[in-house]
C-alpha cells in the first residue's frame, strides 16, 4: 500500500475515496452476477461465475486497502473480526443443539 500512499497521499479525502471505491467494486460484482444470471431480458448472459468471483475478490482487496488506510494493523483487526464472527456462529449453533 506504500505505493498508493506515495502516489495519492493518505489524507482524510484520500481515505474517503478509498472507502467509496468499495462501493464501485461492489457495483461491478452485482453487474457480473446480473450478467451471469442473464437477468436483463434485453441482454443474453454476459458473465460467468468466474467473473463474479473475480469481482468479489476486487471487493475484498479494495476493502482491505481501505482498512489498511484507517488502522495500523489491518491483519490483526481483520483476524479479530473473524474470531468474533466465528464465536458468534459457534454460540448460535450450540444454542440450537
Describe the fold and architecture.
The chain is an all-alpha fold and 97 residues long. The protein has one domain. The protein has four helices and no strands. The chain has helices at residues 2-8, 12-37, 49-70, 74-96. The longest helix is centred in the first third of the chain and has 26 residues, at 12-37. It is flat and about 45 Å long. The protein starts with a helix and ends with a helix. The relative contact order is 0.11.
Tell me the major beta sheet.
none
- The tally of beta strands, per DSSP, is 0
Q: Can you tell me the residue ranges where pLDDT is under 50 for at least 5 consecutive residues?
A: none
Shape type: flat
**Percentage of residues in DSSP E strands:** under 5%
The radius of gyration is: 18 Å
Number of domains: 1
Please tell me the overall pLDDT: 96
SS class: mainly alpha
Proportion of residues in helical segments: over 70%
> Would you list the SSEs in sequence order as H and E?
HHHH
Q: How far apart, in Å, are the first and last alpha carbons?
A: 45 Å
Query: How many DSSP helices?
Result: 4
Which helices and strands occur, and which strands form pairs?
Elements lengths: L1 H7 L3 H26 L11 H22 L3 H23 L1
Helix pairs in contact: 2-3
How would you summarize this macromolecular structure in one to three sentences?
Helices cover 80% and strands 0% of the residues.
Descriptive keywords:
mainly alpha, 97 residues, 4 helices
Amino acid at each position: 500500500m506504500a505505493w498508493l500512499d506515495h502516489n495519492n497521499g493518505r489524507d482524510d479525502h484520500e481515505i474517503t475515496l478509498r472507502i467509496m471505491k468499495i462501493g464501485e467494486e461492489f457495483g461491478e460484482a452485482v453487474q457480473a452476477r446480473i450478467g451471469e444470471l442473464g437477468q436483463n431480458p434485453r441482454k443474453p448472459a454476459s458473465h460467468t461465475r468466474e467473473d463474479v468471483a473475480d469481482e468479489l475478490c476486487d471487493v475484498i482487496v479494495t476493502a482491505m486497502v481501505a482498512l489498511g488506510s484507517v488502522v495500523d494493523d489491518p491483519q490483526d483487526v481483520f483476524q479479530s473480526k473473524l474470531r468474533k464472527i466465528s464465536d458468534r456462529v459457534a454460540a448460535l449453533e450450540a444454542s440450537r443443539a
